[in-house]
């Protein structure tokens, strides 16, 4: 059934298909029928960041930026849902076209640019969904906020989403907001994370609960840079790291249609790159900080591969668009076969 739906959707422009899919999944979720259309995955509970996850396979941020299809997506079997990236104010994102399929490689290039309806709209949708599962909210900065003032945007978003999120992801690694990736390094990263940690402590006291902070990083770093980031995450008291965002390396797709489009590449071509970052992080962190792995999971065994490399959880997005809900079940099944 999914193959038929995908073939029909792939006849539409990518962004049109994306928007239609979110509308349909959202409607199915409100009607409570998404689960009836998908075979339920096996239970495989895991505790990460002090949170009990029903299974270790989640949806990565970017698919449901505005929280409009939370229930429908959750009913498909995900162990957790991450929405966003959301910014303090609504913004249209980059000019269209900005989303490109590369089906030969089960890949996508996007230069969306944090298009979203703003944090207040997202929270309206989250409250309307009343989702009782694990919900991550991914936060970023507005494109017209100077990088040197990015901290202000992250703090605004953190304060607003804190009481509505199971965990909060700080996105400093999208390649589609000018200057954003500079926040991943050195004093810029230290200053941002220290400010977020102080705000987290204040909000913990205010709400009587501690909501973990995860930092999402890029795959386009040297091993030395990854180790430096890991050290900063440990020293600033972050709760998890997500590896990784999209890559700017188009080597595997540059010979194909749309392969040279500007933007971040996701899907199968980023698999080995992201898994390598997971391995480097695991070696450096030595279990002190959990790793959430994302990037290139198009088969169940790829999810198990990332857990074996040192991740505690995995997320899927592009693979889900190509393979559908069965990828969730296959990923859980392969992870379950790993030695405990």
From TrEMBL:
Ligand binding (substrate): 65, 110-114, 171, 176, 245-246
Topology versus the membrane: Peripheral membrane protein
Cofactor: record remark: Binds 1 FMN per subunit.
UniProt: FMN binding residues: 61-65, 85, 138, 171, 216, 244, 267, 296, 317-318
Any Pfam family hit: DHO_dh
Main localization of the protein described in the UniProt heading: membrane
GO molecular-function terms, A-Z: dihydroorotate dehydrogenase (quinone) activity
Enzyme nomenclature, EC number: 1.3.5.2
PROSITE patterns in the record: DHODEHASE_1
Listed GO biological process terms: 'de novo' pyrimidine nucleobase biosynthetic process; 'de novo' UMP biosynthetic process
List of catalytic residues: 174
Keyword Transmembrane: no
Subcellular location: Cell membrane
Pathway this chain belongs to: Pyrimidine metabolism; UMP biosynthesis via de novo pathway; orotate from (S)-dihydroorotate (quinone route): step 1/1
Gene Ontology cellular component list: cytoplasm; plasma membrane
Cofactor requirement: FMN
Keyword Cell membrane: yes
Subunit structure: Monomer.
Protein name: Dihydroorotate dehydrogenase (quinone)
Organism: Thiopseudomonas alkaliphila
Source lineage: Bacteria, Pseudomonadati, Pseudomonadota, Gammaproteobacteria, Pseudomonadales
